[in-house]
Amino acid sequence: MNEVVEGALAPQFNLPRDGGGNVSLTDLAGKTVVLYVYPKDDTSGCTTEALDFTALADEFAEADAVIVGLSPDPVKAHDKFIAKHDLGIILASDEDKSVLEAYGVWKEKSMYGRTYMGVERSTFIIDGSGKIARIWRKVKFKGHAQTVLEAVRSL
Question: Mind telling me the catalytic residues?
Fold first, then answer.
């Protein structure tokens, strides 16, 4: 299991995104990238987090930062999620979970005594040179987008 650390080069990605096309770290070079990883489109916590990042999207843009939400859901699900909640952020799809594994967020979890593989809600700030500037793991979504914005502004 990979475990990325602050100061290391961020694992590259080139993934299908909402609305068609792809989003890649290479294409975003020079910008700050907020890569937030979440388990599933249109669940209550994930919806709250996406709405919070959307509400602050203009402020992130002013700080020259791009927000990319990442989950194993297919692009079709992302498109529905964006349309339903009028989201203003990029959503990338990692159905084969290779990027989730590269960032060390595809983990064994347990609920009600049963173990299963799932996404550990996490956020990574990747600076303009492609290095990981900040990591939050096991994120509690309430107020998280604001915390991330403050961290981006302090880079």
Answer: 46
Beta strands in 14-145 (DSSP E): 14-16, 22-24, 32-37, 65-71, 90-93, 106-111, 114-119, 122-126, 132-136
User: Residue 83's Cα: distance from chain center in Å?
Assistant: 18
The CATH classification number of 14-153 equals: 3.40.30.10
Task: Report the candidate in 81, 16, 19 with the shortest Cα–Cα distance to residue 54.
Answer: 81
Predicted confidence band of residue 65 (pLDDT cuts 50, 70, 90): very high
Q: What is the maximum span of the chain, computed from C-alpha positions, in angstroms? A: 45
**Domain map (residue ranges) of the chain:** 14-153
Tokens of 115: 């173990």
pTM: 0.96
The structure tokens 């609305």 sit at: 19
The pLDDT tens digits for 126-136 are 999 999 999 99
What six digits make up the tokens of 9? 């080069």
